[in-house]
Amino acid sequence: MNRIFIYSLLLLLLAGCSTNKDTTTNTIIQDVEKTETSTQKVNVMPVSTDTYIPNPQVIDDTSLLATGDFYRDRKGEGTLKALDGETKSIQVDSIKLTVKDAKIIDYRPAYSLIDFYHTYTHDEQFTFIKFFVEMENQSDEQKKFSPIAFVQTNTGEMITWEKDIYLEELNGVLNPGERKSGNIGFIVENSAIKTMQLSTSDVYTEQEKLLDKAKTLDFHFD
Questions:
Q1: Among 160, 203, 166, 163, residue whose Cα is nearest residue 181
Q2: Distance between CA atoms of 174 and 135, rounded to whole angstroms?
Q3: Nearest Cα to 221, choosing from 84, 64, 66, 80?
Q4: Are 161 and 150 in contact (CB under 8 A)?
Q5: Rounded CA gap, 140 and 126, in Å?
Q6: Cβ proximity of 46 and 31 under 8 Å
Q7: What's the pLDDT tens digit per position in 73-122?
Q8: Which of 16, 139, 207, 219 has the fewest CB atoms within 10 Å, counting from its CB?
Q9: Whole-number Å distance between alpha carbons of 64 and 79
Q10: How confident is the model at residue 222 (pLDDT cuts 50, 70, 90)?
Q11: pLDDT at residue 48 above 80?
């Protein structure tokens, strides 16, 4: 009789352990499913083309919105000297170019970046002009284009695309339907800028056939 009672007790204990194990397993599975669902929702979030992508040699200027605004990070410190915040767009063949803003910034780079900037200037503090641009190839053919071939200021200074300090590789080939966005900037010798004109490059096919001549955009600073 005692033996039968002991066997019955053991069976009840085993059944209880099995139930707890199943419950724990189901809970873990539900948690994993919730995590996967949450991750999928994050992955499909749209990405704005206005999102700032950190540049290795220039400060993040997104908080510089009014004359006199100051910002400092590990790459240096900058003060906004002037701003043309009007969005401007032009069409060059099938390329739509939009300039979201143009800024003039007084900049002191961090000591670790001095060697990089010695390629452009030997001053430890200088002024640069920068543009946030977006371009789109609205055709089904590959095109060659540069958003800024050169800029010219009212002080008589002209600076070509080779002097760009951002180096975000916006010049060159645009594939069918491709969009590119980013920053382009140039150090200026004379910072007393009131007006400035931007000139794009011409547009060419992959076989170097000219499709459209360069266009210009004008900027005004208070």
A1: 166
A2: 9
A3: 84
A4: yes
A5: 42
A6: no
A7: 999 999 999 999 999 999 999 999 999 999 999 999 999 999 999 999 99
A8: 207
A9: 7
A10: confident
A11: no
> How many other β-carbons are positioned within 10 Å of the β-carbon of residue 6?
10
Q: How many residues does the chain have?
A: 222
φ and ψ at residue 130, rounded to 5 degrees: -140, 155
Determine the average pLDDT of the residues in 146-166.
97
- C-alpha 131, offset from chain centre: 12
User: Which residue's structure tokens are 């594939």?
Assistant: 175
Q: What is the DSSP-derived secondary structure letter of residue 72?
A: E
What single DSSP character describes residue 161?
G
12-38 residue pLDDT tens = 444 454 444 444 444 434 443 444 433
* pLDDT reported for residue 2: 45
What are the beta bridge partners of residue 95?
A: 92, 137
Q: In angstroms, how far is the first alpha carbon of the chain from the final one?
A: 102
- 3 state SS of 117: helix
pTM: 0.76
CA distances from 123 to 39, 79, 163, 193, 206 (A): 48, 16, 15, 19, 40
The SS3 call for residue 220 is strand
* DSSP per-residue codes, 17-73: HHHHHHHHHHHHHHHHHHHHHHHHHHHT----TTPPPP-SSS---TT--STT-EEEE
